[in-house]
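User: Structure with (3S)-3,7-diaminoheptanoic acid, tokens only please.
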Amino acid sequence: ANTIYLKDYQKPDYLISKTELTIEIFDECTRVSSRLHINKNHEGESKDLILNGENLSFISLKCVGEESIAYDLSDKTLSVTPKRDDFILEIVNEVDPKNNKALEGLYQSGDIYCTQNEPEGFRKICYYLDRSDVMSVFTTRIEADKVMFPRLLSNGNLVDSGAMPEERHYAVWEDPFPKPCYLFALVAGDLAKVEDKFITKSGRSIPLQIFVDHGNEDRCDHALESLKKSMKWDEDRFGLEYDLDLYMIVAVDAFNMGAMENKGLNIFNSTCALANPETATDANFFRIESIIAHEYFHNWTGNRVTCRDWFQLTLKEGLTVFRDQEFSADLNSRAVCRIEDVRALRDSQFVEDAGPNAHPIKPSSYMEINNFYTPTVYEKGAEVIRMIHTMIGEDNFQLGMKKYFDLFDGQAVATEDFVHSMEVASGRDFKQFKRWYSQSGTPIIKVDSDFDQEADTYTLTFTQKLKNVSHKAYHLPVKLGLLSSAGEELELIMQGKSYGEETVVELHTESQSFVFEGIKEKPVASLFRGFSAPIILDMETTREELAFLLSYDSDSFNRYEAGQRLAKLEIESLSQALKSNKVPQVDHLVLDAFSKLLRSANADEAFKALAFSVPSLVSITEQQKEFSPGVAQEAREILAHALAEANEDYLSEHYNRYSTSDAYVFNAVNMGLRSFKNMCLAYLLKLDKSEYVSLAQDQYDTSANLTDRFAALLALLQTQTKARDEALEHFYDTWEDDAIVINKWFAAQASSPKSANVQLIQSLEKVSAFDIQNPNKVRCLYGAFAANLTQFHKEDGSGYSLIANKIIELNSFNPQIAAGLSKAFKKFGALKGEQKDLMKQALETILEVDNLSPDVYEIVSKTLK
Ligand code: B3K
Ligand code: ZN
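Assistant:
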């Protein structure tokens, strides 16, 4: 596989102002006829026009007005020698959607034809300049059988439709906004339509339509509500109004990722769109709301202003994730959202940044761009935008957004252009800040404190520890406060100036000190409030101080954080005891701090459900000197058991204290109550008492919503009981034929740290509801197993060879999904001895495969390096 470099970027030699497509769907094949209006975009001598095209059957090429035209066809290109600077090409080719199992380009999901073109799928539909800086106005005519494909959809507005001979029909769509071809979409199939509308701030009434398989009409309301909320929010907070006359969403079962923001015609993985209380959990409802929003927000940040090239991906993804996070925070609990976002960042992005496939949010090279739709580009990208927001404030940030659209609407631009807009609007200089775009790795910020009793000063010294000697210091914001021993926020005075009780200081150099004046007693520092920068904080904080912050910090994120740090210290001590064969004893200080939190009056249930949780296994193993998930998991269980035992009465009393009314309502308060109640249940089931097993069994049997029912199943899964087996069997029988719900059954079992061994996975892949060609099922079975650290990393290497074999199988038909699974080997560098040899063998068997895709090759070869 060859490597592509950002530094080699050159602007396109030709542009395509207008693209007219005719797509004829027949049983055996699909014929694509394109009419491309092309003009020269370079100085001097005319160059050949080199169009991309992959897996296409070429039929014909004509240049309008010319007798003939010279061309050359290769495996991946069609080169044309034009005679003029402006010309129209007419090209005909055929594609085979039925056998397209890579799910890129035009393919079939069930009986529906649909497309996925980002980043480079359009070249699998027709010959084109498949690059995001070529923006064109598209007109699309679709023809197909009337009975099999009653719906014919594409981007923009429907301008014509009608009947044709032989039971066929056609539809013509026009999208007035120039767009790169990665935003092109087409859908044909027999789909039910659920409709609503939204009145924009300027008074235009926009029909909102969701297309789903027949039978799923009752799972569309939530997506429609979410869409309306998104449209309203983008008007209210960003002043952005929808631009087309129609907004369509199609849900399909076979999709490589979550959803796609095609102009006016989003295509969604059905798991990310369809929900009702019986078939989706709170987490699903929340995720759907945020993904619907994310794709909608792309209409401005991504579609109106797009990326110059794929190295700029974070330009649209980081920004759009930031926007969807803010949307969720404005609509739900900001504190809970922030905690969950940071949790997800650390468990995925921090791990990626510390592993073999680490890359900056703006990579400088790639072999396969599909491998770079990563937590780094997305979530760390959003943190980088958030830091700008933190430093310049909401008002300036909004001015910066206005500037961005003033300068770049309708263009394909680079990340510097975004930062430039923010600089102009705020009057700030972000030259140094841009290092966040080009350096990889999570910076460690070491903090030393010094209280000077005579001078009444408290000094904080921040030292940046960078990943690499060639890296330079970052510019970043530290939001902070200081607490007195009474738990009160102290006034922050630096150089005689008061900054109130909370402020943001900025770091620029490798080492920097801040002196706070008028401090009479040694305070407790609360640093990086709200996780104001994506860093690892290295500061000596005593258990007493952490317990104190867990009770008193006014910043809810740091309150949560203090608890997690305390729990991690305890898990570390327990692990040490286990390793040296001592009886592990849970520290009373820790139990008391958490028990106090559970009973605290100044925290709501949603917060408690998060803060009273044991840190994730991933976050613990990331900090281990020697990677040992087995010991860490055992220590986690010991701590969880002790927390349950110490609070048994409270947990069982409060389990049903805040029962939400029978009717399921999706809102932050009810979600918080449900998660609190289910947290109580999960802890109680650790106590090995039959009364709690019955409680869970009851909840499983009687819950009308899937949130509570599935939580009961998960709680039972921790036990070795008949009730557990019965619930599992019942769940399968109930949802076997439901493409979405049944996936939870696979994932729940594959994630179980105790029982999900290789034999179990091999028996689950044999059940009729499993299908390796469906990416959702792959993720829920093999993906969940590979993320199950204790089982995947079994000493005998059985987990490694199972996953390696699946990667090899997937590579032959869906490289993207195969590459995604290949990232499971990211701990290679942390392994030692025989364990490392076993993983090495597994990785080498993958590299030996004939026809290994560049996708898998890139991940695996970089892992072995
Ligand atoms: N832009 C798409 C992702 C495309 C992934 C291609 N492998 C979804 C999103 O970020 O909204
Ligand atoms: Zn996106």
